[in-house]
Amino acid sequence: MEGLKDKVAIVTGAAGGLGTNICRTLAEKGIHIVMADNSSALQEEFKKFKNEFPDNQGFSFKTDVTKEEDVQNLVEETVKKFNKLDIMANNAGVVQDMYEVADTPIDVFDKVLNVNLKGVFLGSKHAAKQMKQQQFGTIVNTGSFYGKTGQKQFSCYCASKAAVINFTQSLALELADYKVTANSVSPGNMATEMHWKALRNEAEIREISFEEMKEKVIETIPLRRHGTGEDIAGAILYLASEHGSYVTGQALNVNGGVELH
Ligand SMILES: NC(=O)c1ccc[n+]([C@@H]2O[C@H](COP(=O)([O-])OP(=O)(O)OC[C@H]3O[C@@H](n4cnc5c(N)ncnc54)[C@H](O)[C@@H]3O)[C@@H](O)[C@H]2O)c1
């Protein structure tokens, strides 16, 4: 893909399983990366990133995506350094512990909606302000295949991701006049701790081993493997490139075909 070198991207959730590899794959194309996360692992991840990409001019920025001041500062510091923002990847997210609706504590609902929806809202809001002004850019919000259909015991997570998909459509309509695109990506079963934790729980319930549970999931994926941050980065690179410039308001499935069963 052409035209990506020296673009500037903010990636939230950058210290996580998908985030670290999204950052690496984008950096391989010459994109400067601002790594944002609220985790104490962020510094260490950024150090590793810098060792691998010493010429990358990006930086790390401790950010809680649920706090407007943090997100505003994140975007402002990025623009102060680079005078632009090409890509806003709102990837930070949390999964919920498994509960039926009838048993869900309110703090589970609040936490999941706060990070997954409010975080995406704030990231989109402050990126949109900048992108409207500069009249270019793309926003990519991370949804989930769980945002497309309800799932037992994941109601808050599913609802938060469904909201991300719908929110991104409104955003796309508002930004179209400014030549700014906004899309969501919907990962499937991804090879990260977030997914492994859910598998461990499910394995325990079914009284089978983790490896057996993992095999069962792979059987449901037509491409017969878990997804990675590189796969998500592929979608982001496409959407940020000239080739993806006519795509807006979409929810792009990056899931190995899992919904086809
Ligand atoms: N792993 C999967 O199977 C899967 C499937 C579908 C969608 N997703 C989505 O992909 C995204 C990345 O997930 P992952 O698998 O890398 O999970 P992960 O838990 O490895 O990473 C998530 C990152 O988000 C960060 N984060 C959490 N709350 C935050 C906050 N308030 N402010 C800033 N950062 C915060 C965490 O510190 C972590 O580094 C999430 O939005 C997730 O919902 C994942």
Write out key terms for the chains shown.
alpha/beta, 261 residues, binds nicotinamide-adenine-dinucleotide, Rossmann fold, single chain
List the helices and strands and how they pair.
Blueprint: E1 8-12, H1 17-28, E2 32-37, H2 42-52, E3 60-62, H3 68-82, E4 87-90, H4 106-134, E5 138-142, H5 155-175, E6 181-187, H6 193-206, H7 210-219, H8 229-240, E7 251-254
Parallel strand pairs: 1-2, 1-4, 2-3, 4-5, 5-6, 6-7
Bound molecules: nicotinamide-adenine-dinucleotide.
Nicotinamide-adenine-dinucleotide binds at residues 12-13, 15-19, 37-39, 63-66, 91-94, 115, 119, 142, 144, 187, 189-190, 192-195.
Give the CATH architecture: 3-Layer(aba) Sandwich
Number of domains: 1
Q: Structural class of the helix and strand makeup?
A: alpha/beta
Report the C-alpha radius of gyration, rounded.
Answer: 18 Å
CATH topology: Rossmann fold
Task: Give the integer mean of the pLDDT values.
Answer: 97
- Helicity, as a percent range: 40-55%
What is the overall shape?
Answer: globular
What does this structure look like?
- The protein is α/β, with parallel strands linked by helices and 261 residues long.
- It has a single domain, classed as NAD(P)-binding Rossmann-like Domain (Rossmann fold), CATH 3.40.50.
- 48% of the residues lie in helices and 13% in strands.
- The chain contains eight helices and seven strands; from the N terminus they run βαβαβαβαβαβαααβ.
- Strands 3-2-1-4-5-6-7 form a seven-stranded parallel beta sheet, with helices on both faces.
- Helix 5 links the parallel strand 5 (138-142) and strand 6 (181-187).
- Helix 4 (106-134) runs parallel beside helix 5 and helix 6 crosses helix 7 (210-219).
- The longest helix has 29 residues, at 106-134.
- The chain is globular, with a radius of gyration of 18 Å.
- It starts with 7 loop residues before the first strand and ends in a 7-residue tail after the last strand.
- Bound molecules: nicotinamide-adenine-dinucleotide (NAD).
- Nicotinamide-adenine-dinucleotide is lined by residues 12-13, 15-19, 37-39, 63-66, 91-94, 115, 119, 142, 144, 187, 189-190, 192-195.
